[in-house]
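Regulator of G-protein signaling 1 structure dump, as promised
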Amino acid sequence: MASCAIRGGCPSDYLAVAFSVLSITLLFARASFPFLVHRDANAKSSGFWLVIIQIIGSFNLLLSLVMSVNYFTWNKQRMWQSCYIWAVWVEGPFGFGLLLSCRIVQAFKLYHVFVKRRFLPVRSRVLLPLIILPWIGGAAFIHISKPLNHHCHMSSQWVVPIVCIHGFYIAVLIGVTMAVRHIEFKFHEFKDLLRGIIVSSIAVGLWIAAYILNDVHEDILWVQVASRFFLLVTASIMVLLFFSISVSQPLLSQISLRRRDLEFPTMGQALGIPGSGSINQKATISTDLSQPLEKLLADKRFLLSFMAFADSCLAGESIHFYDEVSELSNIPVTDPVTRVYMARHIIEKYIDSGAEMEVNISHKTRQEILNTLDIAHTDLFNHATNEIIHLMKTNLVNDYWSSVYSVRFKEETLRQHDSYKLEQMVWDFSPRLSSVQCSDDPFQQDYINRCSSARKSNVLDMDSR
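structure tokens r here:
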């Protein structure tokens, strides 16, 4: 017990390492499952890379704890086993620092989009290093000061600076979260940020207690063993909880596997936009195919037929873009939050360079949209829509009218029109006077009783006369 408490290799140490391996395995499975199921994640989006960076930060955090704290019996005289590499750099800025910095970037993006109603002036790949820079400076200062002993422990006087570094990042996250507390989010982003604050704060508090016990009380053997076990198990649980808290969009949650995030195939349906994803039109009159394309696209059935044709030609992004912009126009101006959700979705899916379904519009129009001062503006996509309409008229319309999709649409429209006319026909079932006698009725079997009673009444009338 005495030897393993100092050098490592106690049964509890191996149990803690096994638990950390299990947690990181679950993390990888949890992160990869949505992409394996949907297979449509955009690897160029900032949201995707923030997820990858969080996975790297989680792995670095657990690995650095295993390497820097005495869980195994090995000699740390080699360069790659240095305490400063693992305990200062990998565990600090490139471990827990990455996790908190990614969450801060997500919070900043929410603040700018929903409060400022514009995108961040800098990209996430630039903002993330800027946020993590103070932590890197602190790690460099600790490395220069050399406060660690051969057990990778530091004296109690260094506890306060370490706590200040962690507390500073948590305070920044709290500040940005409080700045968006008045926004009525549709998908619980504010609650997710609060959960992230709670988890990170509790984790830091528990780690501080474990570090104090492990670093200061080196002479108490059972404290060394218990604090090591508690430190790694707590970090493993925190990694899973922190990663499972999602602030992403509802179509494909890149962090969470909550069922509600996988129920909606389109953003319009997720936001509850009236008529999104359904065909409520009824063919009362035949569609006038000589109308301009803009009016034809207002017919949902024609839009779906035209969209199917464009998809078959691998050119469907323009029609999908037009459809979602039309859904955006159905959102009232008095609901800016929903408009921001939809506009952000359209920009990330169709406008961003390298987007999943990037549309072919001019650079000037693209920059006007990306640099807009109001994402919820009603005329945000007007120029882009005009260019897309012109593109469809030039490249798709003529081919559509000569395709089988056009023939099917015309047949379906004609069939629905005929059925509608049949439904509108008025049938008169009112009784009419007839001079047909019962004896002349070919179906007199049904009226024998009535005919006989009629004859009897006639005979009685004649007798009375």
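The radius of gyration is 36 Å.
lmk if u need the other ones
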